[in-house]
């Protein structure tokens, strides 16, 4: 269930979704966006299947999955008037991902949001210092946007979890969904992979000029904070972080 804490006109907005999958790059990148923009907490997502954990934001206990928004000129054509970020502090159980993806797609349609971008990690193929990023588009228009900004498209492979749900539902419904994937380590939180993801996201938000350098400067502290958050929200018998949805090509 999506609970709107504050009504805001989100028409023509751009939705960015960050969940802690491989390398936690989605959550780290979304957290950095949150810390560098003046966004309001406009909603939360609740489910009886979520882990029984409260996240404290500005002294207020909330669901682990929250929605933030603010007026920013954004989008690849500069047509978006708002940016909306859905940020999660934990990885929901597999059974919740399909209804969660459906709820986000439905809510974005109700709000007349024009573009959804999901931030993801994928296993690093070559063990070197160069981090590659790829894009997947649910529609021809979304794929044209990737081509316009010379973001390499993933030709073959698999995108699992929430990102996969939102991609194939976007394709089925004719809804523009772009998934940006950054190669990342799978054994620990990777703020450097998140910084590369933000550099790629910059192409889709040219009016905003996101600077990933502060993220690199704060990489160690952010990685520690995110990992502690995941540990607190994960049952003792589970691995931390639990990454059951590898991305590959």
Question: How would you describe what is shown here?
Answer:
The chain is α/β, with parallel strands linked by helices. The chain has one domain: Rossmann fold, CATH 3.40.50.10900. The protein is 34% helix and 24% strand. The chain contains seven helices and ten strands. The protein has helices spanning 25-36, 94-110, 140-148, 161-173, 191-204, 213-217, 219-233, and strands at residues 2-4, 14-18, 40-45, 55-57, 60-62, 65-74, 80-88, 115-123, 133-137, 177-184. The strands form two sheets. An eight-stranded mixed β-sheet has the order 1-3-6-7-2-8-10-9, sandwiched between helices. It has a two-stranded antiparallel ribbon with strand order 4-5. The radius of gyration is 16 Å and the shape is globular. Residues 238-249 have low confidence and may be disordered.
Task: Identify the notable features of this structure and list them briefly.
disordered C terminus; alpha/beta; 249 residues
**Computed CA radius of gyration, to the nearest angstrom:** 16 Å
Largest sheet: 8 strands, mixed
Beta-strand proportion: 15-25%
What is the chain-wise order of helices and strands? EEHEEEEEHEEHHEHHH
Helix count equals 7
Fourth CATH level, the homologous superfamily: PAC-like subunit
**Basic shape:** globular
């Amino acid at each position: 269930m999506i609970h709107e804490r504050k009504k805001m006109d989100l028409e023509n907005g751009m939705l960015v979704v960050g969940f802690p999958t491989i390398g936690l790059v989605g959550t780290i990148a979304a957290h950095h966006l949150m810390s560098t923009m003046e966004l309001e907490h406009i909603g939360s997502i609740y489910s009886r299947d979520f882990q029984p954990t409260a996240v404290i934001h500005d002294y207020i206990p909330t669901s682990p999955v929250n929605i933030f928004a603010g007026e920013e000129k954004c989008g690849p054509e500069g047509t978006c008037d708002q940016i909306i970020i859905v940020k999660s502090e934990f990885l929901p159980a597999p059974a919740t991902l399909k209804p969660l993806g459906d709820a986000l797609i439905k809510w974005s349609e109700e709000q007349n949001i024009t573009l959804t971008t999901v931030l993801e990690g994928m296993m690093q193929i070559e063990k070197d210092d160069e981090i590659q990023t790829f894009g997947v588009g649910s529609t021809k228009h979304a794929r044209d946007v990737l081509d316009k900004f010379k973001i390499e498209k993933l030709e073959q492979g698999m995108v699992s979890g929430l990102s996969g749900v939102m991609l194939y539902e976007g394709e089925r419904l004719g809804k523009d969904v772009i998934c940006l994937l950054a190669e990342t380590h799978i054994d620990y939180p990777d703020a450097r992979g998140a910084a590369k993801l933000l550099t790629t996201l910059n192409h889709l938000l040219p009016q905003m000029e996101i600077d990933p350098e502060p993220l690199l400067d704060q990489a160690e502290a952010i990685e520690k904070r995110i990992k502690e958050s995941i540990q607190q929200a994960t049952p003792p018998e589970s691995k931390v972080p639990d990454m059951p949805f590898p991305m590959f090509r």
